[in-house]
Amino acid sequence: MAMPTQAKYVIIGAGIHGLSTAWHLAAKLEAQGQGGGQDILVVDKTAIGAGASGIACGVVRNNYYQPAMRELMAQCVEVWESDMEAFSYHPVGYMQISPESMHADVASIFEQQKAIGYESEFIEGTDDCDTYMKDILHDWQAKGITSVLHEKRGGYANNTKALYGLATKAENLGVRIMSGVEVTGFNQGHNSDAVTSVLTNKGEITCEQVVIAVGPWVNTFWNMLELPKTVDIKGPNGQMAKDIDMWRYWCLEEGTLGVEPGLQVTNDGKMPPVIHVDTDAPLYSDEDGSLITDQMWGIYYKPDLNFGGIQGGAMPYVVKTPVDEVAIDPYGPDSPDFIVGDDFAHMWCSALAFCQKRFEGKIKLWKDEPSGGLGCFTPDSFPVFDRFRENVYVIADSNHGYKMIGVGKLVADELMNGSSALLEPFRFSRYAEGKLHPTSNSPFPWS
Ligand SMILES: Cc1cc2nc3c(=O)[nH]c(=O)nc-3n(C[C@H](O)[C@H](O)[C@H](O)COP(=O)(O)OP(=O)(O)OC[C@H]3O[C@@H](n4cnc5c(N)ncnc54)[C@H](O)[C@@H]3O)c2cc1C
Prior knowledge:
Bound molecules: flavin-adenine dinucleotide
Low-confidence stretches: none
Largest sheet: 7 strands, mixed
Helix content: 10-25%
């Protein structure tokens, strides 16, 4: 395909957000007689799925303590359910299994899921939780659990298959997707700071609107656009926290236990829900019985034919390197720095055995292949979806985002001069205005 020199809309990044935005925008332009997919160009410096979306575990859930996140996720689940085959979506459900310190938070999530009509079941008390879990998975043995939130919707999707499903829908509407086109900067107008053209390694593209959907590379683009590197944040009592870094990296740790995925079926032979366990019970090694941690810890897992085993992860860790010095490339499994090591394998496999007897003694089947990757987080670890420089829309999901397939639909509305109530709580101005989301007691930065 020849490199275009002009496109009304340039979308940077062919991950879940760039592709979903392209598809929905093309459909809306066409429906409203204002153009169509031919007005949209998606560029990616590598290829479809070269970023976080291509390595994500693919878990789709709604258990968020923050009302705004929950409502947004309910909309996203509807988009997943709209074409399960194209998105390779498996609606097996999702379980948040928690200790007493999270009981009240999860109870309130359950109440609010009921209020928005999102189907889930809530089980309380050690014995009832144990019975409920054993009714589904007979070998359940996790300790320190006092509540189970069982979301009947949600589940997981196969990461790259879903992306190609989105790309096909966009291309069928005339969207052009170009790989190997790296954005290196922007030109701006003489009398405004609006972007007039996008500079790339393959030439300049003049445009009217830019959408930045670059996942972990967002800090690079933030710098290109000369947006503030720090923010002041108004706290609950009106006090200002000054000069907080806008971005920081966390490294996500995931991997696969190379057993037959069919080892993990329910008592009646079905695919089980995605399991997420947080607990403060001590975790001991499944290899030698030594103590791994007596602090709060958490893991998630699911059988996955694509990954070829039981796939999942644990809590991420903060990358302490200053944000501008973090080596994002090569990304994901190709990174020499940000892949999981033996410590993760030991912890995660021991945690699987802690939860279910069938995983005891299986650590030797750990798939010793590179996995995991970086995520770029905002100051409060919640997304920023907003306009900057007049015509630049930034989709920065703070690593919540593979499951957020519906955000592109709402962004498309906003690009066509609408306004989305679901996106409103995620504006950049919330930091200065103190319109912050409530925080939970989960050990994960995104719950
Ligand atoms: C290991 C891991 C597991 C995860 N698991 C889950 C999960 O189970 N569920 C969930 O909901 N979320 C999960 N996430 C988070 C989720 O993957 C991300 O939030 C989401 O995929 C981000 O999507 P995106 O479209 O914004 O960016 P990406 O998918 O990262 O796409 C950005 C694209 O931009 C391109 N790009 C970058 N710079 C340039 C440039 N200069 N010019 C042109 N193109 C450029 C890249 O090549 C890339 O293809 C996980 C993340 C990681 C790292």
